[in-house]
Fold this protein.
Amino acid sequence: MTTVAFYSGEQLPLEMHKVRIVQKITLQPIERRLEAITDAGNNTFLLKNADIFLDMLTDSGVNAMSDRQQAAMLVADDSYAGSATFTRLENTLQSIFGMPYFLPAHQGRACENLLAQVLVTPGSTVPMNYHFTTTKAHIVMNGGVVEELLTPSGLEVTSTDPFKGNMDVAALRKLATDLGAEKIPFVRMEAGTNLIGGQPFSLANLREVRQACDEFGLLLVLDASLLADNLWFIRTREAGCTQRSIADLTREIADLCDVVYFSARKLGCARGGGLCVRSQELYARLRPLVPLYEGFLTYGGMSIREMEALAVGLEETLDEDMISQGPQFIAYMVDELDRRGIPVITPAGGLGCHLDAKRFLDHIPQELYPAGALASATYLVSGVRGMERGTLSEQREPDGSERLAEMELLRLALPRRVFTLSQIRYAIDRIDWLYQNRRLVGGLRFVEEPEVLRFFYGRLEPVSDWQQELVTAFRRDLGDSL
Ligand code: F0G
């Protein structure tokens, strides 16, 4: 592992790449930002890029590509069937994960659709460390339910547990005993557990999960969308793993699983997805659905150019200098905010920095969407766009009452190799200012509330003129600064 010490003693993440293509971004004045967030119904999904300075909505499909990825796109072998590009991608996946079969799909949720259609039936229960929105939706649509068996520390916002994404294996054994293996079509482990702050599982935990699956004859499926971050944490935090290569760790992880699927919008810094399958029998059941829902078996809905970029991106994921960048920048942001007393999920995970809106805005009741209000306020004071991950992202109960989320988070994703350290420091500075002025922030209420996936399209308004007050305070403290 490369260590670069600074003579000053400062601990800074250092970019192990140089920037050769840039995109201009604009920081609008706060008055324009107020108009923009008002027009967007206080929903950051509805903002336009022209009004956004640092887009931290997601890392999905917006990670920086390498020069080698871009170059590979120029030599793509475009054809509907049998392209050399597919063979290259298939070979790369086989050599990294060691599984004989690969099925391409247009993105991660498409893999989830195929798996759920083939494996989940009414009455099924799918145990997992924690759900992801699209995963759960596909399981539920096919008549199944999700059982979350996250280790208890996983939901503690502040913790020192390095592996908060671990599964409680005793709980898995109990569930399998109570339900019977025939009710459990597969066990799902999610790498870099998204909704609890990009938190990893340990290799030791995965080995134990495998052991329990073997005892009950259960299939083990890995969602590897955020595997790169998880690998980095295993490599740097887990006893017995710090001397091992990323390739070697990846292979052991895959060897413990029966299916590995991924969103290539995250893993491999491209756009697409796919499933790697060990069993010929399962492959044969999944295969007919690919041409039906995705595209022919040698592209699965992906652009051939993206497939070339993906093959190279996956190889680059085995490079420590590459996969360390995200986690190191996130750790810098998390630690700096934490040092200033600003509530964040600790320890730092992958994917992004997660502000704890429950504590940041502890005067706002969950019914008035503190995480949504924090997303709106953060954009207003900084032009930084984050994603609400709290009660707004939940669906109401059938009786119309709110289902209050376990965590109220504002996720500030750091797409890999996209932002510079000064941009991160700018974001920290503005969040710090907001924290000092947090009492000015008020709640939000719906003016338009879609029934399904309301967080994507819903429109909200502030419950008072708190946003105007924030603008006034900003001008008082920061003068005519953007
Ligand atoms: N699994 C995980 C763990 C994910 O984080 C995502 C997407 C998916 C599956 C679905 O993949 O988007 O390619 O269909 N996460 C994105 C995000 C949307 O913003 O966190 P997809």
